[in-house]
Amino acid sequence: MNGFMEILSEKILPIASKIGQNKYLLVLRDAFMLSFPLTMFGSLIVVFNNLPFWPDNLKTTFSTLFGNGQSATMSIMTVFVTIGIGYYFAKGEKVEPIFGGVVSLSSFLILTPFFATFASEDGNTTVDASGLLTLDRLGAKGMFLGILAAFLAAKLFVALTKKGFVITMPDGVPPAVSKSFSALIPAIGTLTLFLIINAGMTGFFQTNLHDVIYQVIQQPLTGLGTGLPATIIAIFFVQFLWFFGLHGQIIVNSVFEPFWQTNMLDNAELTKQGAQALSEHGHIVTKSFMDTFTVGLGGSGSTLVVVLLMAFVMKHKQYKDVGRLALAPGLFNVNEPVIFGLPMVMNASIFIPWILAPIVSVILAYLAFASHLVPLTTGAQVPWTMPIFISGFLATNSIMGSLLQLVQFLVIGAIWFPFLKMVDSVEAKGE
Fold first, then answer.
1. Nearest-angstrom CA–CA distance, 305 and 119
2. Which pTM value belongs to this model?
3. Is the pLDDT of residue 387 over 90?
4. What is the pLDDT of residue 120?
5. CB distance 240 to 12 below 8 Å
6. Predicted pLDDT of residue 106
7. How many Å from the N-terminal Cα to the C-terminal Cα in the chain?
8. Of the candidates 331, 335, 359, which has an alpha carbon nearest to the alpha carbon of residue 415?
């Protein structure tokens, strides 16, 4: 086992470390976190408007009265992400960040069609309308184009600025005016490029980059990145990296987050259309799914049941003390105390349950959703610190979400128990 661990650590850990330090992934992570307070507000509106005990007519009324809370936050999340990418990329390159943010947003909007086609109620005719932006272009459907456009715009803006294509104002000019003039030429150069790209797509190909990126890149990649095999791979690497002391959640999430967020936004829009639309066209693996039915069971590795077993079942004093100390944070899915207190890092005796239990748990959850035993997540982003059972209900608007968490909790405990018993016995014999 030790030789196998050494081989894996030599081959994989350097790659994982490079991924974790990649500036583009770090910028993307920070950009998503910029939108977190807004999406949380929108998620609360989704949960409230669709509580299962509301009658249908009341749900419709609440959607009319409070629907803008979702439309102005979750439904236009790509807007916030593009601003965040431009802002944090420019900040990292020591260029005025606010201009990086607004130039990235404007570049994305230049590529966005300001028209839409609407079907009549009978579905027999369509109406073309111009001078408007549809929410789907600013939300899930535009996410990948927004990310690509924002990075390209920010990089070009920073490059032009660093090349010295700036207008320098005298010292007596107010800073706000001076900074605006410094950003003028880089901003014009960046936006001009995007305008030419959009003109080429519209004039020569009679289409737009939104539809091309969505159909050619976003849909296939999202389907591939959120299927069961990819989800198992993501969970495996979270656990594997944590075993060697690296924060697997941050590293893996920076790669998979766009897929999970896109599916979450899709589910939120489908929830507006009703339970049937969500059930028929919704996604299983979303940001809410990953936060609620993996991290929501006690943190990375779903270790709440492990903490309880350590605190109240294991006999060795050290384990009991660590379990009791880790119990309070563990209830809120903060499990660093048990990860480093057991320890789970570099502890070959618990490597198998550490890797196996979360994978079995996520497969169980996936099958429960795929078989429609549990309603799909509504698109509400439940905080990962929300205690177990409450988070399952909020994510699905159903008690079945809480029951699924209970089943996962018991299965994880059954996998861990013999290994904890073995470790406990070994320590007792040692004493």
1. 52
2. 0.82
3. yes
4. 64
5. yes
6. 97
7. 25
8. 359
